[in-house]
Specification:
CATH class of the largest domain: Alpha Beta
CATH superfamily of the largest domain: Periplasmic binding protein-like II
CATH topology of the largest domain: D-Maltodextrin-Binding Protein, domain 2
Number of domains: 2
Number of strands: 25
Strand content: 15-25%
Helix content: 10-25%
Number of helices: 14
Structural class: alpha+beta
Distance between the termini: 56 Å
Shape: globular
Radius of gyration: 27 Å
Length: 564
């Protein structure tokens, strides 16, 4: 079999693949592995091997704003549930701090030459928190239930819409057959695996809960995973406790003995009082208040994977009354970018806690290109570009098209009740009027903005925000046929690159393609990129070895608490 092979921890020997199909409806035949339980270390007694490492122990106290709903990664959708689940459950693969996919329960994988078959090799020393060995049957049950079971009551079935079949090769090898070969399938596998012997009605000896009734399964509130922490206790509205997993398959095991989530009514005051050790997403307005904590706490900044931008409408209809759409001219789009003092906007709107964006991909993304076009604040450059495009200053201080006589005037729409967007709109108006472009700002309720203007393309410019996911597929936003391409931007060369990036199965080819996409988006300006916010996490200095990445803090199992 010709394969594209993931560069994993080991070189995998050639395996003879025996295809064994299991019925999703019957949940397979159960787990026949009755061998000894391995604890992932040399002595096999549940204790850490004798190596030098930080002292085990301590309690890390964190804050949640709301009670979770349940602890089941194929059902829950709320942030509090996910925060706790991340300590209990694991996926086949995960994102590292650089937004790249790395192995978790799978240590390696191969992709067939045509991209239709994906074979994953699973860690062999993994056990569930109750001591039951983890096998490929757990993976087949979890993914198969979500993808194929008509009774599945959760929201994620569409995630696996390219999946055609799952084949268990052996206890620690599983194959996925795709009906549409795409590299993005790997991203769908960042999905917590649940234990078949607990949730499959046929395989479970303890529970007889139909798949259709999984929302009421008792183990949703008393979860069993493979992760570094086991579920301890949950007193609604008071605390949730998880405890260090002594059967954890990785070595070394986590150092912190207990992670405790509490529900303070005022998290900032709780942090100041030492009642919690860690707090995410400190409000910009509270950073000055938190300044005294620099003596006892570490402040970590990370760039949000969200940016604000100005969306052009490229259609003739958008400027039907004027007779000419100025945004179709590249010089005009560049002029608008240069006319905006984005660093000043960051100071005014984000209290200087932001990063200027020049394209779709933030600097931490592997798709980001260092060869982006930069648009520094320069009213003089903006004026020259507008002159070159034929939009000349009149005696009244406004710009008019030298051929048609049309006034350069448009309406900027944005969401009402959103202070950031309202400020962006007002500052944009001010900056553009300084170079002779008249801007009328109109604020709308989000539902009206979306349904009456964005979807039907009834606008000239809109100020809004985009989220950049871990997978940098730009199709929906910038491809001619993209579902979120509200302004009907079209670039044939970029369209081809986007499809090429989607289809590439080799990561190095994909990265090079997306770097080129990043450069072209930056140069052609389908939107004016403004900025993304820096978020702050504050952590007590007694918590050591913290890793910061694209979505905040990473590798919590390697953290430890300085007992002194």
């Amino acid at each position: 079999m010709h394969t594209l092979k993931h560069s994993g921890r080991f070189i995998i020997s050639v395996l003879t693949i025996i295809a064994v199909l299991f019925s999703i409806a019957a949940c397979g035949g159960g787990n026949d592995n009755n061998g000894d339980i391995s604890n992932g270390n040399e002595n096999g007694n549940g204790e850490d091997p004798v190596v030098e490492h930080p002292e085990i122990g301590g309690t890390l106290i964190r804050a949640l704003y709301d009670d979770p709903i349940m602890f089941n990664p194929i059902l829950s959708t709320d942030h509090p549930s996910s925060a706790v689940e991340s300590h209990i459950f694991q996926a086949l693969v995960k994102y590292d701090e650089n937004m790249q996919i790395v192995g978790e329960l799978a240590y390696d994988w191969e992709i067939s030459a045509d991209g239709s078959e994906w074979v994953f090799y699973l860690e062999e020393d993994v056990v569930w928190h109750d001591g039951t060995p983890f096998t490929a049957e757990d993976v087949e049950f979890t993914i198969g239930t979500v993808a194929f079971d008509e009774d599945y009551p959760g929201p994620y079935a569409s995630v696996f819409n390219v999946l055609a079949d799952i084949i268990i090769v052996d206890d620690h090898t599983i194959k996925f057959i795709l009906n549409q070969p795409v590299y993005r399938f790997l991203n769908t596998l960042v999905f917590g695996i649940i234990p078949k012997h607990i949730f499959c009605p046929v395989a479970s000896e303890e529970y007889d809960v139909a798949i259709a009734d999984m929302l009421q399964h008792p183990r949703n509130l008393d979860p069993i995973g493979t992760g570094p922490y086991t579920f301890g206790n949950w007193i609604e509205g008071e605390y949730i406790e998880v405890v260090r997993n002594t059967l954890y398959w990785k070595s070394p095991k986590p150092y912190i003995e207990v992670v405790l989530w509490t529900f303070p009514s005022d998290p900032l005051s709780a942090l100041e009082a030492g009642e919690i050790d860690l707090l995410y997403d400190i409000p910009l307005s509270s950073l000055n208040r938190m300044a005294p904590l620099h003596a006892t706490h570490n402040f970590f900044e990370y760039q949000r994977m969200i940016y604000d931008c100005l969306i052009f409408n490229f259609t003739d209809e958008a400027f039907k009354t004027q007779g000419i759409n100025p945004f179709q001219n590249h010089d005009v789009r560049m002029a608008i970018a240069h006319a905006l003092n984005r660093p000043e906007m960051i100071v005014e709107i984000l209290d200087d806690q932001g990063v200027v964006m020049n394209s779709h991909y933030p600097g931490i993304s592997w798709a980001h290109s260092e060869a982006q076009t930069e648009y520094g604040y320069s009213p003089e450059t903006a004026a020259q570009l507008l002159d070159d495009a034929g939009w000349l200053l009149g005696t009244d201080g406004w710009r008019y098209h030298q051929e048609t006589g049309a006034k350069f005037q448009f309406t900027l729409l944005t969401q009402s009740g959103n202070p950031r967007r309202e400020q962006i709109a007002q500052l944009t108006k001010n900056y553009l009027e300084d170079v002779g472009i008249q801007v009328d700002v109109k604020l709308l309720e989000w539902g009206d903005l979306l349904n009456d203007h964005l979807w039907p393309g009834n606008f000239q410019m809109v100020a809004m925000g985009w989220t950049t996911g871990a997978d940098p597929d730009a199709f929906s936003l910038f491809h001619t046929n993209g579902s979120l391409n509200f302004g009907k931007y079209s670039n044939t060369e970029l369209d081809q690159l986007i499809l090429q990036g989607r289809d590439a199965l080799d990561f190095s080819v994909r990265q090079a393609t997306y770097n080129e996409i990043d450069q072209k988006i930056s140069a052609d300006l389908p939107v004016v990129f403004l900025f993304s916010q820096l978020d702050t996490i504050i952590v007590d200095q007694k918590v050591k070895d913290i890793t910061i990445g694209a979505w905040g803090l990473y590798d919590f199992e390697s953290w430890y608490i300085d007992q002194e």
